[in-house]
Q: What sequence folds into this?
């Protein structure tokens, strides 16, 4: 295994070669703006660029069931109109200064992002637009109707595809009445019900200063970064002191299996259960262990058993998707329709073996070497570091999260992995198969 000092040296060297600012692995500066917004900043003077985002607990999990898709549509229309600026004016003014506007949206979190030149004139014009979009959006009726029609059409098309059917069904069966069961885009009926008032109400509840996370990296001083954070959040409403609640995710009481007929040439298979929260104390044991089980590409056990030894699939994979509450643990693959039962049986046997005995010491040593050796590539650009700043802020992770990453990986043991994976019960999982050839026979597979 690599010596930790050697790894840290190469991390620092990689950063230094790309940027002469590397005084530490990742020197994150953190403070609160006057209105309570939390700011995370890394100064990097190597390029005349600035990446900045403002995010909120405003993801798909905060939709109502009747109006699912509200969060996504709110985030989309934030970029398409503010007081005094229609979408053409926004696009034109950003193009004039070479700035790029983007959106962030996932289950828990949503916001806007900006990449701009750091020279004063260009930066100020770009930041002014972002501040206006955040503080004074207008959600134009005509634009909303156009986007509703576009999205409804995209959903109808997606619903004909086996991978979409498998994913939507899996989440609904796994999370049942929990908000995580809802489709982030909404469905056709809920999207068509959306009104401008729905978007305004969602914006006023969730896009508030007290819960804003400003993530920033680039060519700016601390004083400039403080001024930028104040500029971007000054126009936001203060909002409620409490972060919006999400209910805990309950365990599965029994196995659930669903087969969906489809003319696809292959069966699309998903198997899984509730996994872990973003702040789970077993995060690194689960992360490292999953790299061995199914997250490590061609060298993982699932891929070895299903692809290399038996040719049942081009790839088989597994992952944990940690969220504010327990995100999913998921195994996925595609196989020929007449091989569905064989593949499912092998997936379950491989998982049972891993849960019973854990990885070998040789597997653990190899995967640690792979993760640690590849770590510098996780932070080799401003864009990647900016993503981590946003992640750290959104989930209130330690400021030393990246500094400690290598050590946290290295200290994982086989015993840690076995203990952490014990939360998974192979006899109580959700199984979804789209395109099975013989659903009556396949339904007997457990």
A:
């Amino acid at each position: 295994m690599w010596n930790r000092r050697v790894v840290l040296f190469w991390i620092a060297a990689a950063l230094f070669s790309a940027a002469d600012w590397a005084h530490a692995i990742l020197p994150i500066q953190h403070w609160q703006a006057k209105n309570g917004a939390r700011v995370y900043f890394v100064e990097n003077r190597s390029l005349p660029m600035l990446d900045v985002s403002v995010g909120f607990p405003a993801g798909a999990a905060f939709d109502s069931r009747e109006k699912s898709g509200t969060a996504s549509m709110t985030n989309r229309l934030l970029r398409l109109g503010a007081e005094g600026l229609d979408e053409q004016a926004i696009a034109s003014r950003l193009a004039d200064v070479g700035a790029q506007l983007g959106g962030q949206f996932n289950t828990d979190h949503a916001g806007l992002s900006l990449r701009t030149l750091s020279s004063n004139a260009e930066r100020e014009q770009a930041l002014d637009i972002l501040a206006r979009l955040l503080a004074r959006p207008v959600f134009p009726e005509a634009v909303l109707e156009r986007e509703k029609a576009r999205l409804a059409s995209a959903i109808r098309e997606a619903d004909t595809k086996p991978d979409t059917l498998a994913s939507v069904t899996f989440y609904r069966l796994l999370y049942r009445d929990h908000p995580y069961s809802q489709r982030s885009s909404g469905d056709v009926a809920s999207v068509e019900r959306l009104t401008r008032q729905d978007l305004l109400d969602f914006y006023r509840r969730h896009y508030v200063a007290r819960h804003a996370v400003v993530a920033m990296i680039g060519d700016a001083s601390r004083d400039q970064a403080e001024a930028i954070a104040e500029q971007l959040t000054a126009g936001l409403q203060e909002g409620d002191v409490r972060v919006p609640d999400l209910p805990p995710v309950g365990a599965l009481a029994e196995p659930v299996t669903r087969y969906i007929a489809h003319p696809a040439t292959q069966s699309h298979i998903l198997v899984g259960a509730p996994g872990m929260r973003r702040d789970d104390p077993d995060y690194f044991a689960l992360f490292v262990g999953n790299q061995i089980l199914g997250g490590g590409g061609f060298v993982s056990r699932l891929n070895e058993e299903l692809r290399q030894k038996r040719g049942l699939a081009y790839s088989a994979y597994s992952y944990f998707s940690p969220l504010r509450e327990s995100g999913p643990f998921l195994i996925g693959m595609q196989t020929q329709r007449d091989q569905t039962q064989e593949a499912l049986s092998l997936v379950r046997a491989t998982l049972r073996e891993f849960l019973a005995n854990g990885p070998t010491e040789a597997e653990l040593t190899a995967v640690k070497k792979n993760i640690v050796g590849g770590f510098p590539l996780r932070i080799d650009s401003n864009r990647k570091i900016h993503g981590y700043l946003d992640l750290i802020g959104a989930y209130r992770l330690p400021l030393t999260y990246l500094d400690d990453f290598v050590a946290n990986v290295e200290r994982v043991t086989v015993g840690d992995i076995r203990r952490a994976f014990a939360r998974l019960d192979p006899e109580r999982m959700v199984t979804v198969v789209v395109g099975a050839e013989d659903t009556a026979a396949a339904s007997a597979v457990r």
